[in-house]
Design brief:
Helices cover 50% and strands 21% of the residues. The strands form two sheets. It has a two-stranded antiparallel ribbon with strand order 1-4. Strands 2-3 form a two-stranded antiparallel ribbon. The longest helix is centred in the first third of the chain and has 28 residues.
């Protein structure tokens, strides 16, 4: 196993810890594991770069890097994290509010919708439901019941502040790992990474 493949395994390990921290909504452990992930993954490129330059193959290395812009983006993130300041992902929470009202009736039903300020927004009286013998809802329609049900679904994402795409950090990191695997294979084919 090459040094690059060893570092790839290390990066995959820290990625799995990032996923675990995310699922448990643990922000600090997520950032610690992301820092380790960035360092391990960056080492793959650094080892390959150093070997390429030593063997006068820097141009071949640069061609491989140019094919995968996400490698350059994450290299920049790691450099900021090491040389300037810790990379701090922003947390975004998306809320999906929904409400369901189930009405089953035999008689006339009054429906009143009241706003948060107490104002009556809607006040209606429904006509009795007509039920036919072949109706799927025949049994349900004979019940007179109004059941309100509200729910809030939240979705948490960690994002890089400067990233304009739709991907969150976990999606981007998964793409980065995929691109690193392809980079390693390409570098092996080009002779930039020795086969052990």
């Amino acid at each position: 196993m090459s040094d690059q493949e060893q570092k790839l395994k290390e990066a995959e390990y820290f990625y799995s810890l990032m996923v675990d921290s995310f699922e448990k909504e643990l922000y600090d452990p997520f950032t610690y594991n992301m820092s380790a992930f960035l360092s391990a993954a960056r080492s793959i490129l650094q080892y390959t770069h150093d070997r390429a330059v030593k063997n006068n193959r820097g141009g071949d290395y640069n061609k491989l890097i140019a094919q995968k812009p996400i490698l350059k983006y994450f290299k920049g993130k790691r450099n900021v994290n090491i040389h300037e300041e810790p990379v701090k992902p922003i947390q975004q929470v998306f809320l999906d509010l929904h409400s369901t009202l189930t009405v089953r009736m035999k008689e006339t039903v009054g429906i009143q919708v009241i706003g948060a300020d107490g104002e009556i927004l809607r006040d209606e009286l429904s006509e009795p439901a007509e039920i036919s013998n072949d109706s799927e809802v025949q049994v349900k329609a004979h019940l007179k019941k109004i059941t309100p049900s509200t729910g809030i679904t939240s979705t948490l994402q960690y994002r890089f502040e400067d990233w304009t795409g739709d991907e969150d950090i976990l999606e981007m990191s998964e793409q980065y790992l995929k691109n690193l695997r392809e980079f390693i294979q390409g570098a092996i084919l080009e002779g930039l990474i020795p086969i052990n």
